[in-house]
Amino acid sequence: MNLGDQAAKLRDMERDMDRQKAAAGGRTDVTRGDFGFALGVLHAGGRVTRESWNTHIRNTRWLVLVPGSTFTVTEGRPVALACPALVGREVGYEPHIDLYQSGTLSPWTPSTVDLLATDWWIIPPTPPGSEAGAL
Questions:
Q1: What are the sequence ranges of the domains in the chain?
Q2: From residue 104, how far is each of 38, 85, 118, 130 by CA, in Å?
Q3: Which SS3 state, helix, strand or coil, does residue 44 take?
Q4: For 64-113, how does the pLDDT look when each residue is reduced to its tens digit (9 = 90+)?
Q5: What's the count of helices (H) and strands (E) in the chain, helices before strands?
Q6: Hey, how many other C-beta atoms are within 10 angstroms of the C-beta on 99?
Q7: In sequence order, what DSSP letters do the residues of 72-101 get, joined into one string?
Q8: How many CB atoms lie within 10 A of CB 121?
Q9: What b-and-e string marks burial along 35-67, b requiring 16 or more CB atoms within 10 Å of the CB?
């Protein structure tokens, strides 16, 4: 899915949420969902967080889907040092979910609690030039 398609899908999701809010008398809690909801947002190119993760400092911990890609292994890089036979070869980089926290992105795997939680919500896109963790 290209960036234009991702943006369109996110806009569609936002319109759906606006309709849900209107149908719920303006309640804002309908933007929350379960892990399936969160995964849909990630696949559309959005960011999500859990309410329970951000009780002290709002929106400083969130998830993003990193799409799969390929890269050419170059000398001196960690993959080349671990397996010199791969130098010059193109290798696949599988899609995964990253967690942003304290200015760092790292691979993330959900716990059972995360999978069963219903406090997932969307973080709106961050305007260019603003703090990555901010709303």
A1: 3-123
A2: 21, 31, 25, 16
A3: coil
A4: 999 999 999 999 999 999 999 999 999 999 999 999 998 899 999 999 99
A5: 4, 8
A6: 16
A7: E--TTSHHHHH-GGGTT-EEEE--EEEEEE
A8: 20
A9: bebbbebbebbbbbbbeebbeeeebbbbbbbee
Quick one: average pLDDT of 41-63? 82
How far, in Å, CA of 89 to CA of 83, rounded?
Answer: 11
Least confident of 23-37, 40-54, 85-99: 23-37
CA neighbours closer than 13 Å in the CB half-sphere of residue 18: 6
Q: Per the confidence metrics, is the pTM higher than 0.85?
A: no
At position 79, the amino acid (one-letter code) is: V
Rounded distance between C-alpha atoms, residue 45 and residue 97, angstroms: 11
Cα–Cα distance for residue pair 42/4, rounded to 1 Å: 15
What is each CA distance from 115 to 17, 19, 73, in whole angstroms? 21, 26, 35
Look up residue 132 and give its two tokens. Answer: 């990555």
Instruction: Find out whether 122 and 58 touch, Cβ atoms under 8 Å.
Output: no
Alpha-carbon span 59 to 2, nearest angstrom: 26
